[in-house]
Design the sequence.
């Protein structure tokens, strides 16, 4: 496990808030390998370093929560095992060697951003429709849908099996000879929702790539790779569903930064 700021290790162990952890450190209540540490930015590795807080030894099992961003490749099951023997997340992230939940499952033939964590409460809230966490996708559809067809993509459209689309945002990114890239933002995550939406308007989906989930974005993370969330992202995790935040602040965090997204694979 990479070294992290000692105040973050204390916070994630559930012993104190970040500010409280900083105060404990400045008061000389924290030791690393027997040495008193007074710098909150000092780094340590809970797997290898001997860390005590007010005389209490922290153990790796007490590192409360782990959060990773993963760029799922196509033709991979979004579960940690598969009874049919297909490649799965478990095969891909086996080196992490921790029990994790997958947040935001993707279809076998879809790719893009997923979140892996051992924080069950966070995973449940991110996925639950009542929180309306936005999921941002680049979708490649067959053909060149005209304005009339695209106008059918709206809140309340019937996509079959008694399901209707909730809040939805979309923007045409690039038109090609035989296909079109469209950025779509969904807020519920119904099963096969994107495929069903574009089947209704008769422009079937050819590729799905999720690039954002709430305030978290794929960025330049290569396909098939993962990385731990950085400290600013973990701060967003802590703030997302914090009752102390106002509704306006929560909404900004959930929807993430406003920015124009372009198709990163123009030649595909």
Sequence:
């Amino acid at each position: 496990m990479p070294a992290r700021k000692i105040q973050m290790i204390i916070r994630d162990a559930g012993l104190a808030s970040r500010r409280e952890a900083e105060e404990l450190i400045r008061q000389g209540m924290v030791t690393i390998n027997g040495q008193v540490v007074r710098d909150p930015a000092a780094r340590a590795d809970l797997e290898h370093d001997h860390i005590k807080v007010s005389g209490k030894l922290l153990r790796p099992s007490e590192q409360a929560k782990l959060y990773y961003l993963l760029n799922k490749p196509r033709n991979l099951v979004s579960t940690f095992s598969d009874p049919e023997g297909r490649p799965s997340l478990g095969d891909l992230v086996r080196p992490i060697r921790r029990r994790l939940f997958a947040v935001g499952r993707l279809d076998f033939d879809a790719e893009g951003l997923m979140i892996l964590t051992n924080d069950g409460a966070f995973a449940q809230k991110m996925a639950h429709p009542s929180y309306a966490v936005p999921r941002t996708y680049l979708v490649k559809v067959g053909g060149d849908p005209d304005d009339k067809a695209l106008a059918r993509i709206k809140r309340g459209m019937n996509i079959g099996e008694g399901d209707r689309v909730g809040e939805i945002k979309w923007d045409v990114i690039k038109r090609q000879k035989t296909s079109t890239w469209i950025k779509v933002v969904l807020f519920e995550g119904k099963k096969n929702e994107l495929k069903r939406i574009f089947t209704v308007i008769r422009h079937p989906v050819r590729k799905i790539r999720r690039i954002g989930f709430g305030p978290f974005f794929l960025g330049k993370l290569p396909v098939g790779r993962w990385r731990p969330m950085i400290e600013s992202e973990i701060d967003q995790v802590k703030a997302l569903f914090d009752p102390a935040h106002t509704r306006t602040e929560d909404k900004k965090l959930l929807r993430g930064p406003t920015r124009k997204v372009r198709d990163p694979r123009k030649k595909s």
Residues 245-268 have pLDDT under 50 and may be disordered. The longest helix spans residues 231-240. The two ends are 37 Å apart (CA to CA). Helices lie at 6-12, 18-26, 89-92, 120-127, 147-150, 193-200, 231-240, 247-255.
